[in-house]
Amino acid sequence: xxxxxxxxxxxxxxxxxxxxxxxxxxxxxxxxxxxxxxxxxxxxxxxxxxxxxxxxxxxxxxxxxxxxxxxxxxxxxxxxxxxxxxxxxxxxxxxxxxxxxxxxxxxxxxxxxxxxxxxxxxxxxxxxxxxxxxxxxxxxxxxxxxxxxxxxxxxxxxxxxxxxxxxxxxxxxxxxxxxxxxxxxxxxxxxxxxxxxxxxxxxxxxxxxxxxxxxxxxxxxxxxxxxxxxxxxxxxxxxxxxxxxxxxxxxxxxxxxxxxxxxxxxxxxxxxxxxxxxxxxxxxxxxxxxxxxxxxxxxxxxxxxxxxxxxxxxxxxxxxxxxxxxxxxxxxxxxxxxxxxxxxxxxxx
Length: 349
Ligand code: P6P
What we know:
Blueprint: H1 2-13, H2 18-25, H3 35-55, E1 65-69, E2 75-77, H4 78-93, E3 97-102, E4 109-110, E5 122-130, E6 141-149, E7 172-178, E8 182-187, E9 192-198, E10 203-208, E11 219-221, H5 232-242, E12 251-252, H6 258-268, E13 271-274, H7 287-300, E14 304-306, E15 326-329, H8 331-344
Bound molecules: 6-O-phosphono-alpha-D-fructofuranose.
6-O-phosphono-alpha-D-fructofuranose binds next to helix 6.
């Protein structure tokens, strides 16, 4: 009977709006004073604004590069700059956070409340538009966010220490995928839930309650164009995936947009790998803006995330734009890849 009741309860939740869901689950968060809920709500609003622009990208003059580079040395796309400004302005105007770090900004931003004090509790780290090089070819892109409580005293300006916390300290993390439909997928440490935007009325509805990554999968996502530069452990794992044996060969799927590859693996099972290469000796993905939030989501959904040797969430960051090798997805697939990495115990041969 209990199981049937659970199903009815779950059914009742589906189509619950994001706003209703946040209010209903606010008490779950032990520090709940409504600020985190307001923070998630402000991200929801900013995502709608960015979504509107992304969906029109082909029609208005917002494609292409903005003509400048970010600290990563990457061409900033016009939409990168737009998304970065929308999220920063939305978070600043709502006086919920005391600091923001963005992949598109050289340094972190201190935010004072209207009372000119730094007494807000949270800092937000984000990749405002991940995969933006795909915009001009109409491939899905996404926003990734990570939320921590500040560790420096309230009322004082935030410092770099508030941002360089290990991922295990995150109080919330999530992404927005601007795809065939726009979804927000996030966790506050009590499981992962997905909400789909109904563009006709501008409301997100609970479409994927209590998301779980299958423990095993048959999809591997890696840019095999870099094969010759991969560590031997990754080369051996790719050959393992391709071998005709047992339930293999696996399917190779690589969109080149982390949020899209991750989201597919969340639903179908799979592993995403961006290892260190000669071009990117520490890997390409950023620990703070991409790997930590995706690792929290993966682990909350029953999956795993590591650098090939240790949990991503246990890595002590040393700089804002630090890169790490990234293995993330179905637990059994990540563990198998780690086996190959640890067998060679190499970084790159
Ligand atoms: P490559 C996008 O720039 C990104 O950070 C991820 O979204 C994506 O998975 C990866 O880089 C693609 O990198 O080197 O394979 O084009």
